[in-house]
Design a protein that fits this description.
- With about 725 residues, the chain is an alpha+beta fold.
- The strands form four sheets. Strands 1-9-8-13-10-11-12 form a seven-stranded mixed sheet, sandwiched between helices. It has a six-stranded mixed sheet with strand order 3-2-7-4-5-6.
- It is built from 28 helices and 17 strands.
- The chain is globular.
- It binds iron/sulfur cluster.
- Iron/sulfur cluster binds near residues 336, 343, 344 and 557.
Length: about 725
């Protein structure tokens, strides 16, 4: 536990009540609280609104509710830092169930400081279920506080407070620990508290993350998970929020008001048996978690090395699964929601910090997960696990998205290599590959709001424009190597040899994040989707299927990171049909409504297309925004090409029909690029058609009608864009 500066009583006494709202406590009925909570920090108003049946029919819950509330809250001109921008946290009807693994996720939706459009980001921890059990399907916060505030939602007594809170640290680890203790009456009650926080860096950088907590009764410490993508933490701090606390002390099997608990238990029993018997021989999620992917990615040339230039490195074994297994405390129940037998939220106990304000302290570090291990490791040339753990700790405590941070640091390291940056521009920092000291110093500068770190904290899209305009750097080259889509840094997979995954990143609604589609194995490794039509079908089904998790507040990992023994023998093993059936049982068990797997997809299609139109409304959402930097499509530099020249030469010969033998490396790069960019364009055409969109990526009126989202305001936006 990190050291505190003041006793709890002194901190509590410094709070000043700015507003209080009493509400009626009501049970959740079939997965819905049937109310949303609305707070405006500019005037300290608090009110609730009912959830209509229409809202449920069209938007289902979770991300769907959040998008609808945001749409209503803003106007076409609203910017991320305008008071009317809303920060929305939602749960979803299945969220909060404990008899099936992975059912406790929050979905955060807001206008993003990185993309300037709508983003969604999900995270574990107990916040979303407790929000619902306290009375609300979603929390919407608008306005800006004059001084830092804590929002306290008390599901035990039916009360919402806005409290000025001047004394506590902004940083997640100390703040979460303090607030958990402050709002729990005793040690036993701490499990009933969940805290949302950001951190000091969120005052200064755009890709700031939110952390969502739960209390680990075995370690007697607060733990955290992140809703890290898209800069929701920056919006949180721009509104003057220091923390949001929810208290709910009566969690039980019936808290979610299920219609048919027996059906949920039937599904839970089936998957829990698989996890207990098969995890050890499959992905070892209970021992290692997603960090088990490091050596698999390296083996298939997919691990990002030095800003995604290469996909494998001889030193990867210094940061592979054996290292993380040894670092993570084993034999602990490490679920980030109750009842999650997958239990993959591992932590490094007793870690000795060597830099920054907590130097010398011995702390618990949550993670790292794969994205952090690869991003803070190989992608910036670091093969020291302790350095990765230290960076992971400070990213979390300062409220920094590890993926965006990693890609931003990798980008400046490459700019340094090519002489675009020097010590004069970086304030003395030597941005060489693998320079652990400068990577950590950048983080501490972000927290202090000073130096080159603040510039790096604006993200790769901002930096590439800045370096071109201010330093005269080659804008086209910078565009090729800045690993972002729509302004959001892409997550940590090399996509050069998987055009389907290029589409998965490029056409993702919010920017380059794999939680929409992760098709690399189907496409590149297993060759299951050879034609453009196959790829387009996958780029329809899987984004819809994965969207479904965010409508209901679910973790995706128990869907396919554990698989039934006979899964390979099924017609469509990549869909894990038995688990899809489980979800139809869980859905029916919670809501009482019988459902087919196709109807689950239809729920997503409505929300997915609504979000596409939302992007359109904000000035985005058309084809030009669905492209990747070329580094994600093919080799940009001569050393990149030459490092895999046999592969690329063969492709030129066999796919493009060009004999490379008489060509220079630059000419080969150019010929390959022309081919690959044309292929991507073909893919986009076919995907748009499959989705019922125009060649410019706009959902047609017929598509809106078929899906039942031809609401007047939605049709108006589409008509305006079409005409
Ligand atoms: S599978 Fe892992 S990340 Fe997902 S809910 Fe369970 S413990 Fe959390």
């Amino acid at each position: 536990m990190v050291t505190r500066t003041k006793p709890i009583e002194e901190l509590r006494a410094s709070h000043k009540l700015l507003a209080e709202y009493q509400y009626e406590l009501r049970p959740v009925v079939h997965g819905y609280a049937n109310r949303t909570l609305h707070i405006n920090l500019s005037n300290n108003s608090i009110h609730e609104e009912p959830v209509s049946q229409d809202m449920k029919n069209i938007f289902t819950g979770g991300r769907g509710f959040a998008l609808r509330l945001l749409w209503n809250a803003i106007n076409d001109e609203t910017k991320w830092d305008d008071p009317e921008n809303a920060l929305i946290i939602a749960n979803g009807p299945i969220c909060g169930t404990t008899a099936y693994p992975g059912l406790g996720k929050s979905t955060v939706v807001t206008l993003s400081p990185l993309t300037h459009s709508v983003i969604d980001s999900n995270g574990g921890g107990y916040f979303a279920p407790y929000l619902k059990f306290s009375g609300f399907d979603a929390l919407s916060i608008q306005g800006k506080a004059e001084e830092d505030v804590i929002i306290f939602i008390d599901g035990d007594t039916g009360r919402v407070n806005i409290e000025a809170a001047p004394e506590e640290s902004l940083n997640t680890y100390p703040l979460t620990s303090i607030l958990t203790e402050m709002y729990a009456d005793n040690e036993r009650a701490k499990i009933g508290i969940s805290v949302v926080s950001a951190g000091q860096a969120a005052d200064h950088i755009l890709y700031a993350a939110l952390n969502l907590s739960w209390y680990d009764v075995r370690r007697k410490e607060s733990r955290i998970k992140q809703a890290a993508r898209g800069g929701a933490g920056r919006v949180f701090r721009d509104k003057g929020i220091k923390g949001i606390v929810v208290r709910y002390s009566s969690i039980g099997g019936s808290s979610n008001g299920p219609a048919n608990p027996v059906l949920i238990r039937k599904a839970g029993k089936r998957i829990n048996k698989e996890i207990a018997t098969l995890d050890e021989s499959q992905n070892q999620m209970r021992n290692i978690g997603t960090a088990h992917l490091v050596e698999i990615m390296d083996h298939f040339d997919l691990l990002p090395i030095n800003n995604f230039r290469y996909g494998a490195h001889p030193e990867h074994d210094k940061i592979d699964s054996t290292v993380w297994k040894a670092a993570f405390t084993q034999g602990m129940v490490d679920g980030c929601w109750l009842g999650c037998t997958m239990s993959c939220s591992h932590g490094v106990d007793h870690f000795h910090l060597v830099t920054g304000p907590h130097t010398g302290e011995i702390v618990l570090v949550d993670g790292p997960e794969y994205e952090s291990a690869a991003g803070l490791g190989s992608n910036i040339g670091v093969y020291d696990p302790n350095a990765i753990i230290e960076m992971n700790f400070y990213c979390d405590t300062y409220g920094v998205d590890t993926i965006s941070f990693a890609n931003s640091v990798a980008f400046v390291m490459e700019c340094w290599q090519y002489g675009i940056l020097d010590t004069e521009k970086t304030g003395g920092l030597e941005m060489t590959w693998g320079n652990i000291d400068v990577a950590l110093e950048l983080l501490h500068q972000m927290a202090r709001g000073e130096g080159f770190g603040v510039l790096v904290g604006q993200g790769t899209r901002y930096m590439k424009n800045f370096f071109a305009e201010e330093y005269g750097a080659d804008a086209a080259f910078l565009h090729d190597i800045a690993m972002e889509v729509k302004g959001m840094e892409i997550s940590e997979y090399v996509t050069k040899e998987s055009i389907a995954q290029q589409g998965g990143y490029g056409m993702a609604l919010k920017g380059g994040q794999h939680d929409e589609a992760w098709l690399i194995f189907m496409d590149q490794v297993n060759k299951q989707i050879p034609t453009f039509e196959d790829k387009a079908e996958a780029l329809h089904y899987f984004p819809m299927w994965r969207t479904w998790f965010s409508l209901h507040g679910l973790c995706k990992l128990p869907w396919n990171d554990i698989q039934p023994e006979n899964n390979a023998d099924t017609d469509e093993p990549q869909k894990v049909p038995e688990h899809v059936e489980n979800y139809t049982w869980v859905y029916e068990g919670v809501t009482g409504n019988k459902v087919t797997s196709d109807e689950l997809i239809a729920q997503s299609e409505r929300v997915y297309n609504f979000q596409r139109v939302f992007n359109l409304r904000m000035g985005f959402g058309t084809r030009e925004h669905d492209y990747m930097p070329y580094r994600a499509v093919g080799p940009v530099t001569t050393d990149e090409y030459e490092s895999r020249s046999k592969r690329y030469d063969t492709q030129l010969q066999e796919l493009v029909g060009i004999d490379p033998s008489g060509l220079s490396t630059e000419q080969r790069i150019s010929a390959l690029r022309k081919y690959r960019e044309a292929q991507y364009d073909n893919l986009v055409d076919v995907v748009y058609k499959r989705r019922g969109w125009t060649p410019n990526g706009i959902p047609t009126i017929e598509t809106l009608q078929t899906l039942g989202i031809d609401l007047p305001e939605v049709v108006e936006v589409v008509n305006k864009a079409l005409n």
